[in-house]
């Protein structure tokens, strides 16, 4: 709940942060669209939903990692998250 409360207020209070996050998110969207065009990812995959899943997952992992004292290997969890999402995105 704390994370959900802080994140929007940070974006609203600091326009430069919002621009940076938007630019980062749009880069994900571009890469996902490229993978769809290359027939690597499913044609019916919504690039914006896929980006939200990736960014949301990483935000959640990072928040838990920070709030609970780094009790797991963040890089390993991040790789697992992206691998899991990737397997749902690929063309079958």
Salient structural properties:
92 residues; mainly alpha; flat
Task: Provide structural commentary.
With 92 residues, the protein is an all-alpha fold. 78% of the residues lie in helices and 0% in strands. It contains 4 helices and no strands. α1 (2-13) packs across α2 (15-37), α2 crosses α3 and α3 runs antiparallel to α4 (74-89). The longest helix is centred in the N-terminal third of the chain and has 23 residues, at 15-37. The N and C termini lie far apart (37 Å).
Helix content: over 70%
Rg value: 15 Å
Binned strand content:
under 5%
Secondary-structure class: mainly alpha
Largest sheet: none
End-to-end separation in angstroms reads 37 Å
Break the fold down into its secondary structure elements and pairings.
Blueprint: H1 2-13, H2 15-37, H3 47-67, H4 74-89
In short:
By secondary structure, the protein is mainly alpha-helical. It has helices spanning 2-13, 15-37, 47-67, 74-89. The model has no long low-confidence stretch (mean pLDDT 83).
């Amino acid at each position: 709940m704390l994370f959900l409360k802080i994140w929007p207020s940070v974006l609203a209070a600091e326009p430069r942060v919002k621009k940076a996050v938007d630019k980062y998110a749009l880069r994900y969207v571009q890469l996902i669209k490229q993978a769809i065009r290359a027939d690597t990812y499913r044609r019916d995959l919504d690039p914006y939903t896929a980006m939200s899943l990736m960014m949301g997952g990483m935000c959640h992992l990072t928040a838990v990692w920070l709030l609970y004292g780094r009790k797991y290997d963040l890089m390993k969890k991040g790789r697992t998250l992206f691998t899991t999402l990737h397997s749902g995105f690929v063309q079958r």
